[in-house]
Amino acid sequence: MVQTNSTQDFKLVGFSKFVRSNPKSDRFAVRRFHHIDFWCTDATNTARRFSWGLGMQFVAKSDLSTGNMTHASYLLRSGQLNFLFTAPYSPSIALSQNLSPLSTASIPSFDHALCRSFSASHGLGVRAIALEVDDAEAAFATSVSHGALPSSPPITLGNNNEATLSEVKLYGDVVLRYISYNKDTNFQPDHFLPGFEKIEDELSYPLDYGIRRLDHAVGNVPELGPAVSYVKSFTGFHEFAEFTAEDVGTSESGLNSVVLANNDEMVLLPINEPVFGTKRKSQIQTYLEHNEGAGVQHLALVSEDILKTLREMRQRSLVGGFEFMPSPPPTYYKNLKQRAGDILSEEQIKECEELGILVDRDDQGTLLQIFTKPVGDRPTMFIEIIQRIGCMAEDEEGKQYQKGGCGGFGKGNFSELFKSIEEYEKSLELKSLS
Question: Residues annotated in the binding site, as ranges?
Fold first, then answer.
């Protein structure tokens, strides 16, 4: 019998019984995902690998060349997606010039010792999930007053206080970072943050594989109930979806999952926990062991044309890009025409099979997705590429837009991912025994 950590108190009802509703309960105004900050030991080469593998351009930097003697940070961008890669310099560099080790940092919440400890414990990983909010100071105060654990109090950035940054703890060593801009200044948010310098176009190779924004950031935790209750209490986010081991597990392993969303459902934060008592160890438990605790499991990136994106990415899989999880069996695609023939042409279905793309749908829309293998040495963090089709609506000005979370989270695809990860883990086990 499958045993869970916290579902008895948390009372998960499962995918089929869950009724989606949106109470518009955010405690502060959330605009969008702002950026993801990866902590690493070599920002230069890590950023170049992601740039080449995902088709993201270098657009801004903060390093020794800009006067930052605290940390090196490089910003990649594709559409609205911002990936920041940060690594520490030696604290003695600043001290040798009679400066505080943090006085030149463009990210004032950076901590030398914590960054090194983070990399030692987790390897390459996400330190901060950053949200753009109306007021980072108010968001921090509201969050803390509703139970959030503070990580960095509000700090103004720039000579004219052009922006404000604050942080609260999310799970494990991951923080939720709030960013807001001072509307009374001439600072342009496209420039990212004060302290960063634009990288001239001729120095940034013009890559673009069609990725446009961050759809969701998934966390793995030891116990789901306390983590979900904690995040809901200080953000006001509502439950968008939930899955139990019976919904998405296999005959060998499983997980429980809850997806939290903000008011417009464009900021999605799924959280997973392992289940126990199965034939194989849950993949979530494997992650927690290799990551030495809770952390970001994967980042889902929206493509405007997933077929184009995958063609570009697969060309680079073995030459500095990202490898993908094994494709589902041919039987998966034999039934695809019945499930999505009114959305995808026969040619597109054939290309989905060739590229290993999963296709699922709910009553609102269709979801196309694929998952990479872990991006680093450890079997922990990976990348998801998705395209959402349908759910179109009009705003007050008559402009078309796609509703948040269109197509849900692909219950059928979730199961296929689980099977794929199981096969990948089995291949690692066989190699370790040979």
Answer: 216, 298, 384
Residue (of 22, 25, 36, 32) closest to 73 by Cα position: 36
| pLDDT at residue 190 in the model | 84
Residue 419 banded pLDDT, cuts 50, 70, 90: low
Contact (Cβ atoms closer than 8 angstroms) between residue 27 and residue 247? no
pLDDT tens digits, residue range 107-160? 999 999 999 999 999 999 999 999 999 999 999 999 999 999 999 999 999 999
Fill in the amino acid letter for 160. N
Please choose, from the candidates 1, 48, 5, the residue with its C-alpha nearest in 3D space to the C-alpha of residue 288. 5
| Longest Cα separation, the chain | 69
What lies within 8 Å, CB to CB, of 377 at 6+ separation is 123, 124
CA end-to-end span of the chain: 32
What token pair was written down for 168? 């609260």
Average pLDDT of every residue of the chain: 89
Q: pTM, whole model, 2 decimals?
A: 0.93
Give the whole-angstrom CA distance, residue 68 versus residue 93: 10
Nearest to 366 by CA among 302, 335, 333, 410: 410
**Binding annotation for Fe cation:** 216, 298, 384
